[in-house]
């Protein structure tokens, strides 16, 4: 089932990018919609007693309808972290509406996002005690980014995933 979920996510992200690349629409102000893909790395804050916070890694695909508003979908997974002598890991799938406010003539922007995320945390201690959490909830985040050039940017984000689960990441986006 895990492989199937990852395959479906990859196909969905690929489809979004194909549709986004073909949907170059002029908005009358000289702006054409812009699809992007990216990668991120960071740390989950799983808030589980006796567990270390796992390192996070993920992918993001999005589309900016205009310079301010857009949408994005992301998948973030983790490595195994220590959980009372055993292991714990986390993953989240999210779909968000985004808003960016660009600081004039700097390439720097502030970003906000709001949407829905499904977060799964699973762990087993050395004594075979299990911990499982599977939540779908309203999620949001804030970030700061820098457009290195019109086709490449970097971002730092803090996401609140609901039920005391948080995610802090840094990443890079390639825009088409």
Which helices and strands occur, and which strands form pairs?
Elements lengths: L1 H21 L11 E12 L9 E10 L4 E10 L2 E3 L2 E17 L5 E17 L5 E20 L2 E9 L5 E10 L1
Antiparallel strand pairs: 1-2, 1-9, 2-3, 3-5, 4-5, 5-6, 6-7, 7-8, 8-9
What does this protein structure show overall?
- With 176 residues, the chain is mainly beta.
- It has one domain: Porin (Beta Barrel).
- The chain has an 8-stranded antiparallel barrel with strand order 1-2-3-5-6-7-8-9.
- The longest helix has 21 residues.
- It is elongated, with a radius of gyration of 17 Å.
Tags for this model:
176 residues, mainly beta, Porin, eight-stranded antiparallel beta barrel
Query: Low-confidence runs (pLDDT<50, min 5 residues)?
Result: 15-28
Mean of pLDDT: 87
CATH architecture group name: Beta Barrel
Distance between the termini: 32 Å
Order of helices and strands: HEEEEEEEEE
- What's the count of strands? 9
Count of structural domains: 1
Give the strand line-up of the largest sheet. Answer: 1-2-3-5-6-7-8-9
Secondary structure: helix percent? 10-25%
Helical/strand content category = mainly beta
- CATH topology call: Porin
Query: What integer value in Å does the Rg equal?
Result: 17 Å
List the total number of helices. 1
The general outline is elongated
Protein name: Outer membrane protein beta-barrel domain-containing protein
Organism: Psychrobacter aestuarii
Keywords: Signal
InterPro entries: Beta-barrel_OMP, OMP/PagP_B-barrel
């Amino acid at each position: 089932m895990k492989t199937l979920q990852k395959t479906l996510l990859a196909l969905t992200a690929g489809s979004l990018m194909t549709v986004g690349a073909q949907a170059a629409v002029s908005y009358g102000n000289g702006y054409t919609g812009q699809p992007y893909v990216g990668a991120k790395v960071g740390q989950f804050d799983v808030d589980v007693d006796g567990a270390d916070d796992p390192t996070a890694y993920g992918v993001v695909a999005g589309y900016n309808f205009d310079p301010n508003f857009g949408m994005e979908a992301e998948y973030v997974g983790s490595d195994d972290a220590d959980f009372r002598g055993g292991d714990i890991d986390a993953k989240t799938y999210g779909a968000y509406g985004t808003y960016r406010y660009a600081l004039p003539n700097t390439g720097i922007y502030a970003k906000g996002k709001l949407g829905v995320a499904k977060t799964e945390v699973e762990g087993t201690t050395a004594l075979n005690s299990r911990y499982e959490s599977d939540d779908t909830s309203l999620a949001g985040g804030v970030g700061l980014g820098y457009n290195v050039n019109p086709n490449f940017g970097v971002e730092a984000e803090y996401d609140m995933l609901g039920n005391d689960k948080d995610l802090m990441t840094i990443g890079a986006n390639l825009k088409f």
